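User: I'm putting together a small comparison set for a docking exercise, and I want a reference complex before I start. The sequence is below, and the ligand is cobalt (II) ion. Could you produce the 3D structure with the ligand included, as C-alpha cells?
Assistant: Of course. I'll restate your input first, then give the C-alpha cells for the complex.
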Amino acid sequence: MAYFENVNKIKYEGLDSNNPLAFKFYNPEEKINGKTMEEFLRFGVAYWHTFTQDLTDPFGSGTAIRPWNNYTGMDLAKARVEASFEFFEKIGAPYFCFHDIDIAPEGDNLRETNKNLDTIVAMIKDYQKDSKVKLLWNTANMFSHPRWVHGAATTSNADVFAHAAAKVKKGLEVGKELGAENYVFWGGREGYETLLNTDLKLEFDNLGRFFHMAVDYANEIGFDAQFLIEPKPKEPTTHQYDFDVQSGHAFLQKYGLADKFKFNIEANHATLAGHTFEHELRYARINGMLGSVDANQGDPLLGWDTDEFPSDLYTITLAMYEIIKNGGLGSGGLNFDAKVRRGSFEPEDLFHAHVAGMDHFAVGYKVANKLIEDQVLENIVADRYSSYKEGIGLDIVEGKTDFKKLEDYALNQTEIKNKSGRLEVIKATVNQYLLRAYAGE
Ligand code: XUL
Ligand code: CO
C-alpha cells in the first residue's frame, strides 16, 4: 500500500525545471571533489517531525493531515514505519533519526515500553534489509513524560535517574541492533529554572557520571557509534546545561569525556545561544569536535526554537564552508530537525519541505566549495594576520617572547599602523559567489 500515492520518486531536473517536486540543485550523483553529493551531504529525515508530530502548537491542536491518521497504538506505529520507508525512498534521503518514543508508544511501565520498542525495531530492521536507508542516530526522549519534570540524568530524584539510565541502556542496544552510526544526547530537561532549589554541583556531577556509564555500556556491548552532545542554551529549562559548544566542551574536558563525544550542532540552537550557526560549527571544528548537524533555522523575530526548514542560503553557505573545511562530517550527517509550518498541513508539504532543504544545502555546498577553490576567505584571513608570519609576530606564535621582551619592542615602536578589515567588500564578494550560483554558473 502506498501512503503518498500522489508523489513519485523525486528526481534531479535542474534549474530549468518548474516541477515543484524535483530537485533544482541537489543532484545526488554529481561528484564534487571526488565524492557524490549524496555521499558528502548525508541527508537525514527526522522521524519525530515528519511522521510523529501533528503540528500542535501551544495555542491549538494538530492540523496535520497524514495518511496514517486513522490508526492508533501499535497499528499507528507500524503504519508510520511503512510510510517512513516509502518517504525515505521517494525523497532519496540516505539516513533517518529518531527518539525511542517517536517510533513506538510508551506502555504502562518500562517493560511494556521496551516490548513495544522491540516489535517496531524488528520491523525497521526488516525494512532496512530491502533498503539502502540507514540510521544516522537514535536517542532517548527524556523530556515529554511527566516523570522527567525535574530532569533525567540531572533530576533531583534518584529513581528518575535510574529510569533514565535504563532508557539510554535500551537506546544503545537499539542503536546497535539497527546499525546506528551515532548516538545523540540532547539535554531535554537537563537544566534548571532557579538556583533557589537546585544543587548545581550535584546535577553536573551526575551528568558526568551518567555519560561515563553510557560510554562503559556501549563498550561492553560493542556499540561503536560516535556519541554526540547536542547543545541548546534554553527551552525547555531556563538554563540548559549544554548551553553551547564552548561550554559543552569545557564540561566534557572537566569530566574526562572529551575523547568520547563530539557535537551535534543545530542551527536554531546556535542562534538561541546568541551565536551564528557558523560560529558553533567553527568552534567545534577547530577543536576536532564537529560530529553532526541538525539542519534547520529559527525565526530571528521569535525567541524560541521554531525548527524551520533551512532556507537562508547565506547561513547555509557559511555552514557548508565549515563542513568542507572539516573534511565532511565523518559518521555524522545533515539531519533535518525541522518541521513544516502549522499551515502547511498536507502530506505533500513534507516532500516540498525536504526538497527545499536539500536543494538549499546543495547550493550552499557548491558556493562554499567555489569560495574554497578560489581561496577567497583564506587569502583575506592570511593577509589580515600576516604580521604573525615574521618579526615579532612570528616570535609570539613560536613562544619566543615574554612580557619584558614585548615591552622592550613596544617602547621602541614609532607608529602603530592597522589595516582596514574590508568587511563591506568581503560581504559583497560572498554575495557575488552566491549570485553566480543562482545564475547556474
Ligand atoms: C530539541 C531538539 C531535539 C534533538 C533530539 O530542540 O533539537 O529534537 O535534536 O532530541
Ligand atoms: Co535537534
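Residues 99, 139, 184, 186, 230, 232, 266, 294, 305, 337 surround D-xylulose (ligand 1) (CB under 6 Å). Residues 347-373 form the longest helix (27 residues).
User: Thanks, that's exactly what I needed.
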